[in-house]
Specification:
By secondary structure, this protein is an alpha/beta fold. The protein has 10 helices and 9 strands. A 6-stranded mixed beta sheet has the order 1-2-3-4-6-9, sandwiched between helices. Helix 1 runs parallel beside helix 3.
Amino acid sequence: MSEQPQVQVTYAVSDGVATITLDSPHNRNALSRALVGGLFEALERAAEDDAARVVVVAATGSVFCSGADLSEAASGSMEQGALEIVRLQRVILLHPKPVVCRLQGPVRAGGTGIVAAADVVVAAEGATFALTEVKLGLAPAAISLTVFPRMTSRAAALRALGGEVFTAAQAQADGLVTEVVPAEELDEAVDRVTASLATGALQGLRETKKLLNAPLVEHLDAHGRDVAALSARLFGSEEAKEAMTAFLSRKR
């Protein structure tokens, strides 16, 4: 019996910055149950860590996050998984410290929810995005609660209905990304942003985040269960099952 690849979410603190790193290269940092669980643990640790004033969510490898783990989705109910993605966005929105996403590479589907829930997003020029759910008979249901409000309504319609890849520069114009820099300047840009944020007093950071994110949290709390149920219904449909099976077959 072959050993399953170990999913890791690492945690490190330096100069007031807690860096949470997605490190699951075997599935391109897909949102498996194990990875999401690791993210919850790391975010809770950062919230309670007196040495951390700012949180960075980063990833190893060439892909930031490839979205839902379709191998898990194809084998069971997605409602609980969708509820966990809703809760993950809520934890980031309500985190007492600023959360910065460092995007070194592609972000797909569900991974966009992490990006949208973050306070600041710094992306390398080569990072790309796609809300690919529509191609599989699905909808970006659970992540719509943060992704759609961050984007202009016209951009959200184009990206969600088209399901096509778009660039970091387009994501910035759409409202999803804060800053785009050349890949070789990514770390410098993230350091500059986190250093600035770390000058804030903890109470000021916490209360300002509450003001900024209150409408998103209210929207998420009002509709979280409904979109999770929709996600489960779509994932359970024959159309989506056939599309996911075909997609997974192509990847093998």
